[in-house]
Design brief:
With about 250 residues, the protein is of the alpha/beta class. Helix content is about 40%, strand content about 20%. The chain contains 9 helices and 10 strands. The structure holds S-adenosylmethionine.
Amino acid sequence: DPALYIVSTPIGNLRDITVRALETLACADVIACEDTRVTGILTQRYGLKAKLLPYHEHNADKQRPKLLSVLEDGGSIALVSDAGTPLISDPGYRLVRDVVAEGHKVIPIPGASALLAGLVGAGLPSDTIVFAGFLAQKDGQKRTRLKSLVETQGTLVFYESPRRLGATLAVMVEELGADREAAVARELTKRFETFERGTLGDLAELFSGDAPKGEIVILVGPPGEKPAASQDDIDSLLREALVDMPVS
Ligand code: SAM
């Protein structure tokens, strides 16, 4: 059927692909992918023969009409990214929007994503989460974004490059507080998968040296309860209020 299939692929371990994803890739007329070499590894491994069409940040505007015309002609497209789930810090959102606007079907084929793999292994509250993707590289913009998230009552999830991990954790300590529970998930589903768990302060210390190797997800737990006001606080607030009180 003519449809755009959003197909999740592995984030490391090549066996992390669903039966349905393989069937969908095998049947698609076109596989739109970020990098034909990266997706080529997958299609080779599973003996898939579909036509690979590059669709990435830099050619997306040019490629979108081509992909829409495939659907127009009754063909089906599978969208994949280099790793994990398309649209999650990866291209695809505008394509989905345009395909919907043209009245075609969009069918997600769910699977691996570093966001969920990191979350479920972190040991942090998972009832409310905010996926914040990559922070800006500039210090000022990074801080502004973190400030906007200080009060968020949920676990924050970030993607970060290993080169910037140490600096980002240090800024998080300043903007979110050293005491927050947090985790750094590294190399998920791969041979050297590790979770480091502790306070933001602990983790900033741990990663203050040389940049670690591999791919990284940072998770920060929700802010703790504000400490209840002490009797002294209440007394001084009452005294201040009395000073301003009109005497009638
Ligand atoms: N679409 C992907 C997904 O669903 O997870 C994410 C793509 S984004 C361009 C790449 C970032 O995802 C990496 O810089 C890293 O932060 C995170 N990531 C991807 N694979 C990972 C892995 N195996 N372990 C830890 N983080 C990973």
